[in-house]
Amino acid sequence: xxxxxxxxxxxxxxxxxxxxxxxxxxxxxxxxxxxxxxxxxxxxxxxxxxxxxxxxxxxxxxxxxxxxxxxxxxxxxxxxxxxxxxxxxxxxxxxxxxxxxxxxxxxxxxxxxxxxxxxxxxxxxxxxxxxxxxxxxxxxxxxxxxxxxxxxxxxxxxxxxxxxxxxxxxxxxxxxxxxxxxxxxxxxxxxxxxxxxxxxxxxxxxxxxxxxxxxxxxxxxxxxxxxxxxxxxxxxxxxxxxxxxxxxxxxxxxxxxxxxxxxxxxxxxxxxxxxxxxxxxxxxxxxxxxxxxxxxxxxxxxxxxxxxxxxxxxxxxxxx
Length: 320
Description:
- Helix content is 36%, strand content 25%.
- By secondary structure, the protein is α+β, with helices and mostly antiparallel strands.
- It folds into two domains: 2-132, CATH 3.30.1330.10; 136-319, Phosphoribosyl-aminoimidazole Synthetase, Chain A, domain 2, CATH 3.90.650.
- Strand 1 (14-16) and strand 2 (25-30) form a beta hairpin.
- Helix 1 runs parallel beside helix 2, helix 3 crosses helix 4 and helix 5 (183-192) packs antiparallel against helix 10.
- The longest helix has 18 residues, at 49-66.
- The two termini are 30 Å apart.
């Protein structure tokens, strides 16, 4: 939607705004300091209110991390059916969100709530970043390696959860993954000196990879056998369980992805799966990739080299 109103900022202090497709807005305060702004909220994707609040917070701060910034403050955004649901539920949601913000070192300064038949929750988050060290989607270079820091599949598995077709151990696994901050991953990425970064969220891996490819005017080649997936994902997709958003991403990417013969349809669908609080997709000089992966794994992140950046070909993305 925001792409429809893209326009150049009036102020030269806007370092990332409506004219670019970066993960957050950036506004220059002084030559060594800029503010990073983002907002995100959504409907419940897990049953436990506390976990939902924690996931919403982790998801909201992720765009700050994707820009190489440090989140510092937040305002809550709440839509709640107070006429139909116990306010204790909202209290649990807020507690989960505040605890996760505390883990991120973020102060909750206030918020806004409205009565709504459909519950929604999230945060507007402000962070800080060194203007010289902003991570963008547009910096990928030929010869870079592509690194992903979380496995894919939480959208598919959340759909299975709502349908009552997900085993308890996998419900626990996706809840833990979605609530995991990208804090340590972002710090490792910044230290490594990567060329481009984005977080994988509502447009799936391929959608966000396409944005990086187009912004960098290059082609991203993705090795389908190296893309990390949560174990039940392909089986669930094969049985027809996946979110409607996956189909929308797949349709949007028509004509933008070259798929080599032999790559299973289920794999392509998995790479289109919308993620909540997904990992970081990083374009890093190939000589730094192995060290970055080791650093990410030491910090507790799942990290895999799963592709490369090449000069622009006919398609912005190639999956082989």
